[in-house]
Amino acid sequence: MANELQQNQQLTNLKTYLSSKTETLQRLAPKGVDINKVVSVALFEAAKNEKLRECSPSSVYTSLAKAVELNLVAGGALHRANLVPLWNSAKKCHEAHLWIQYTGLIDLARRSGEISNIFARVVYSNEGFLHEFDLEKGDVLQHKPEYDTDAGQARLAYAVCYFKDGSRQLEVMRKDEIEKIRNNSRGGGSSGPWRDYAGEMWKKTVLRRLLKYLPLTAEVKNVVQHDDDVQFNAVEIVEDEANAVVVEQAEDKAGAEEGLASSVVKRSKKTTEAPEGLPR
């Protein structure tokens, strides 16, 4: 009973805090976005995730502010982005962070206006796969998925981008390359998205590498940097009296940019703590 009362109080506190920020969120959101629905999704995710309920309301708000500014869905059925509780070893508590899904990166990449199609796939050990380079044809890739029997173990992933001018860009990553990135990720331990959604993380990893070669908008470049910070660096969230978010790169403090919500986000040293499960 005491535990249930505590959970209800945590949700009540979060609802009260987010309700006080709806006007600010509405100003940040693109036209047509229903902020009340966004807040409802966040509360629904918190009701399902104990660690997310334990996060400070300000960190949940900051993540939502980032999500609405980018016109992504924080949690819910579309899976463009999720609210993920990450352990802050300095403060000894969980804080919510916006974890962008590979489908969210695809959505953002398409906003450049130059891309006609972009996708990522995982290749399994019992599937046919060929990748070679021809001086006349360029990259040649053939993938024959296995649907009738066990596809086997994941062995590589690839991402392809088709441009509107008819050209294309391709990236292929081996299992050892992907596992190396997993081992350096904050979510690469015994819990978190790499365990619960391995296939999605394989796709996201190869897609992120492909994005390096694409004509991205400044907005998308900032999103990729944000994703780097969340996955590979400890990010400290501190309340700011000026009601603004400042993203400060550790190597360039003079170049801090004014951002979103009522907090200050600073990059600090890399940590190995993993998220306590990625909300669906």
Helices and strands in order:
Layout: H1 2-19, H2 22-28, H3 35-48, H4 50-53, H5 57-69, E1 81-88, E2 93-100, H6 102-110, E3 115-124, E4 128-134, E5 138-144, E6 154-163, E7 168-174, H7 175-183, H8 193-196, H9 198-211, H10 218-232, E8 235-239, E9 246-249, E10 252-258, E11 263-267
Parallel strand pairs: 9-11
Antiparallel strand pairs: 1-2, 3-6, 4-5, 6-7, 8-11, 9-10
Helix pairs in contact: 1-3, 1-5, 6-9
What is the number of E strands? Answer: 11
Biggest sheet features:
4 strands, mixed
Which word captures the global form? Answer: globular
The average pLDDT value, as a whole number, equals: 79
Characterization of this structure:
The chain has helices spanning 2-19, 22-28, 35-48, 50-53, 57-69, 102-110, 175-183, 193-196, 198-211, 218-232, and strands at 81-88, 93-100, 115-124, 128-134, 138-144, 154-163, 168-174, 235-239, 246-249, 252-258, 263-267. The protein is an alpha+beta fold. A hairpin with a 2-residue loop joins strand 9 and strand 10 (252-258). Helix 1 (2-19) packs antiparallel against helix 3, helix 1 (2-19) crosses helix 5 (57-69) and helix 6 runs parallel beside helix 9. The longest helix has 18 residues, at 2-19. The model is unreliable at 237-280 (pLDDT under 50).
Notable traits:
280 residues; globular; 10 helices; alpha+beta; 4-stranded mixed β-sheet; single chain
Brief summary of the model shown:
The protein has helices at about 1-20, 20-30, 35-50, 50-55, 55-70, 100-110, 175-185, 195, 200-210, 220-230, and strands spanning about 80-90, 95-100, 115-125, 130-135, 140-145, 155-165, 170-175, 235-240, 245-250, 250-260, 265. The protein is an alpha+beta fold. α1 (about 1-20) packs across α5 and α6 runs parallel beside α9 (about 200-210).
